[in-house]
Amino acid sequence: MTQIDPNALIAAARDAARHAHAPYSRFAVGAALLMEDGSVITGANFENASYGLSLCAETVAIATASAAGRLREIVAIGVIGGAMDADGKATGTTPVSPCGRCRQVINEAAQMGGRDLPVHCGAAEGDALRSYRLSELLPDAFGPADLGIN
């Protein structure tokens, strides 16, 4: 099993947030998935003028893992977010956690992989870090197991 380094995941998420397309909210989010083999898949939020079509960073990263046939290989996730400065860099010292929709998307991957994923929530700047199990963020989650799929 791959060793989980929350700080390395947060660093990868910060790097991903630099690529956020967030012209409307001016809030950049980055996500990093640690895979079974130690590789990392990242995603950044992608907003759309039709707001409902926007994609969260966690969803982008998980969809990327799925498109590569690796949905069941996710062992941990790191997330950061913050208001964008004039250069487009995420700022702020308060850890950001996944929104409700992303918690459900993360749950889909977690259940498919048979894991209660650790979710590391970091700040855009500084050392603040909060770590949870997905089951803490989304207790009694509905997912593939409820449909008899896993």
Automatic annotation (TrEMBL):
Domain named CMP/dCMP-type deaminase: residues: 4-145
Name the positions where Zn(2+) binds.
C56, C99, C102
- What's the family? Belongs to the cytidine and deoxycytidylate deaminase family.
User: What does the record give as the function of this protein?
Assistant: This enzyme scavenges exogenous and endogenous cytidine and 2'-deoxycytidine for UMP synthesis.
GO terms for biological process, alphabetical = nucleobase-containing small molecule metabolic process; pyrimidine-containing compound metabolic process
What residues make up the catalytic site? Answer: E58 (proton donor)
Cross-referenced PANTHER family, in alphabetical order? CYTIDINE DEAMINASE
Per the UniProt record, one Pfam family is: dCMP_cyt_deam_1
Name of the protein in its database record: Cytidine deaminase
Locate the residues binding substrate.
N45, F46, E47, N48, A49, S50, Y51
- Kindly list the GO CC terms recorded for this protein: cytosol
Q: Which residues form a coiled coil?
A: none
Q: Which NCBIfam families match?
A: cyt_deam_tetra, PRK05578.1
What EC number(s) has UniProt assigned to this enzyme? 3.5.4.5
Annotated GO molecular function terms are:
cytidine deaminase activity; zinc ion binding
Instruction: Kindly give the Gene3D superfamilies that the UniProt entry links to this protein.
Output: Cytidine Deaminase, domain 2
Q: Which cofactor does it need?
A: Zn(2+)
What reactions does this protein catalyze? 2'-deoxycytidine + H2O + H(+) = 2'-deoxyuridine + NH4(+); cytidine + H2O + H(+) = uridine + NH4(+)
Query: Which UniProt keyword terms apply here?
Result: Hydrolase, Metal-binding, Zinc
Please, which domain of life does this record's source organism belong to? Bacteria
